[in-house]
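$ ./design --mode recover --in tokens.txt
reading tokens...
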């Protein structure tokens, strides 16, 4: 295995007396699609929140690109090249779709109250470039027909892609996707699968939390399985789908076949 982009060592998080994540360790290679799966309540979203700075761990360490980032807040992790989407839509419905994507660029923009008031040529040119980059990202995720649309006019499946485009606007090296196919029909889910693969091919490392096992097994290079907050196993899709512990805890024989 190449040097890990993300290394998690003995990571734990307790809420009261309950260990939501318990001594979880794994390494994720750059440029790969990595999935985190497990039954409801297994600790998947809690783990994602620990990796992205929403929660601070009770114990353990997170290293990103060789640097210790344990407990750093989300904005500092974003500045280092980490971005995420959420299971529940976080869309600004009072803005255009394009403006939603432009919001994701705020850490990469040079601005302040005085330039915003004086509107120098450099700021105007920067805003134009920002709009062009946002439009290109929308086309990349399959939203070319919605570049001029208001966010509240987009169908649900398009809103899922819009959130991915906004996350990509920060130019992340690591993108964490929380249930990107939730609520989508099979055709839309296949489209998300193709988009995830294109992201990896473009050099973005993906961490996917997803219940759609057909999508996970079809797109993942590496899978980590959680059960009751602990790592049950990890490996390729073939290794995971044939592990008796995974079949018993989560997949079931029908899905694993």
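writing sequence...
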């Amino acid at each position: 295995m190449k040097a890990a982009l993300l290394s998690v060592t003995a990571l734990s998080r307790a809420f009261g007396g309950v260990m939501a994540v318990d001594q979880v360790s794994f390494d994720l290679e750059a440029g790969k699609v990595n999935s985190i799966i497990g039954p409801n309540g297994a600790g998947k979203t809690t783990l994602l929140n620990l990796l992205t700075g929403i929660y601070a761990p009770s114990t353990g360490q997170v290293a990103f690109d060789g640097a210790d980032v344990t407990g750093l807040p989300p904005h500092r992790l974003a500045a280092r090249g980490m971005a995420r989407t959420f299971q529940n839509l976080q869309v600004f419905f009072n803005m255009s779709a394009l403006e939603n994507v432009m919001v994701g660029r705020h850490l990469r923009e040079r601005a302040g109250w005085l330039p915003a008031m004086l509107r120098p040529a450099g700021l105007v040119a920067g805003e134009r470039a920002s709009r062009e980059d946002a439009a290109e990202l929308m086309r990349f995720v399959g939203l070319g027909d919605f570049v001029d649309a208001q966010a509240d006019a987009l169908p649900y499946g398009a809103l899922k892609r819009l959130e991915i485009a906004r996350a990509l606007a920060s130019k992340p090296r690591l993108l964490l996707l929380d249930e990107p196919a939730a609520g989508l029909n099979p055709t839309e889910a296949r489209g998300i699968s193709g988009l995830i693969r294109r992201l990896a091919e473009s050099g973005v490392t993906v961490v996917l939390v997803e219940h759609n096992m057909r999508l996970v097994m079809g797109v993942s290079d590496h899978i980590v399985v959680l059960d009751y907050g602990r790592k049950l196993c990890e490996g390729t899709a073939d290794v995971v789908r044939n592990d008796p512990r995974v079949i018993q805890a989560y997949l079931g024989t029908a899905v694993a076949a």
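exit 0
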